[in-house]
Amino acid sequence: MSDTKRDLVFPEPIFHEKIWGGRKLADDFGYEIPDGPIGECWAISAHPNGDCVVAEGAWAGKHLSELWDEHRELFGNVEGDRFPLLVKIIDAKDNLSVQVHPDDVYAAEHENGSLGKRECWYVLAADPDTKIVIGQHAHDRAELAAMIDEGRWDDMLNLVPCSAGDFFPIEPGCVHAIQGGTLILETQQSSDVTYRVYDYDRVGDDGKPRELHIQQSLDVVDYDMVAPASGEISAPEVDGVTELMECPNFVVDRVRVDGEKVLGQPWPFLCVSVIDGEGTVRAAEAGVEHKVGRGTHFLAPSGCGDLTFRGDMTLVTSRLP
Fold first, then answer.
1. Are residues 49 and 106 in the same domain?
2. Which of 14, 141, 142, 238 has the CB geometry, 3.0–4.6 Å to 50, for a possible disulfide?
3. Could you tell me the residue range of the domain that residue 248 belongs to?
């Protein structure tokens, strides 16, 4: 007998207006988004700043945070006071601020017990000749402080070419900035802590310059980090699967579906984003076939059984290590 409570969980995405956002989430993905510059789609999230509601099935109407709190069996009974991951699409019409994120220890102490923010970017699209900021060139806190004070951004920032299909790990302490003309799938810890280093002297809705966080940034920058020269993926593809990143917080894979593809699901949960193509997916325990396509995101819960995909699709998946 099918177990609909172990069926796939499809969250309703949440959209955030950003000063640098555009309209590609509607124009390219077909999402129904609010008016204005919409920069972020929080596709799988239980964060208080964007807690997704389940769209259909046995858990329809429940927030993802409620499932985490009340039905931990769906997540393999893993420990933790919050759902640990957050999956976004970022539409950068203009440059994002130059920023850096803290690790868990610093965030817990200085940001009311928040998680730190380790993240990674899979580039979905990029305008010709687009670059992206990954890393900085100061050797220590004093040198970075001087560069910031003197506005020596060209000396300080490490820019890397950016093309569709590139992948960039963003560790805590890495100075970074998505540049305009870029569309990105971001997988990250469930945190909304960002320290702005530089914001191009832009002003917010109140007409005042947006807040910078220079002292926090100087605290958390990893001065020993070696900046990458490229986002080109060098990991091998094995049976359609490429491991993009494994770290203490998550494992991210790219999966290609050409006809039929069966993915095992032995993990506490698996987040899945369809980034190209279309087809169907069925979890063995529920036996319900779902149509999916570019822009579909879902969570495969613990005990749902193998996932059978049919069609021509590219997926990005994330899970706990």
1. yes
2. 14
3. 237-319
Q: Is 210 within a domain?
A: yes
158 and 49: one domain?
yes
Q: Which pairs from 62-67 meet CB under 8 Å and 24+ separation?
A: 64/9, 64/11, 64/299, 67/9
Which residue's structure tokens are 């993990």? Answer: 267
Residues 121 and 63 in one domain: yes
Q: What is the rounded CA–CA span in Å between residue 11 and residue 52?
A: 6
Q: Is residue 156 classed as helix, strand or coil in its secondary structure?
A: helix
Number of structural domains found in the chain: 2
Residues serving a catalytic function are 196
Contact criterion met (CB below 8 Å) for 110 and 202: no
pLDDT digit string (tens) for the chain, length 321 residues: 468 899 999 999 999 999 999 999 999 999 999 999 999 999 999 999 999 999 999 999 999 999 999 999 999 999 999 999 999 999 999 999 999 999 999 999 999 999 999 999 999 999 999 999 999 999 999 999 999 999 999 999 999 999 999 999 999 999 999 999 999 999 999 999 999 999 999 988 888 899 999 999 999 999 999 989 999 999 999 999 999 999 999 999 999 999 999 999 999 999 999 999 999 999 999 999 999 999 999 999 999 999 999 999 999 999 999
**Nearest Cα residue to 231 out of 124, 142, 102, 88:** 124
**pTM attached to this predicted model:** 0.96
With respect to residue 228, please indicate whether it lies within any of the assigned structural domains: no
- C-beta separation of 271 from 219 below 8 A: no
Lookup: tokens for 81: 């006071």
| 8 A C-beta contact, residue 38 and residue 23 | yes
CA 211 to chain CA centroid, nearest Å: 23
Do 81 and 204 reside in the same domain of the chain?
yes
- Residue 276 belongs to domain with CATH number: 2.60.120.10
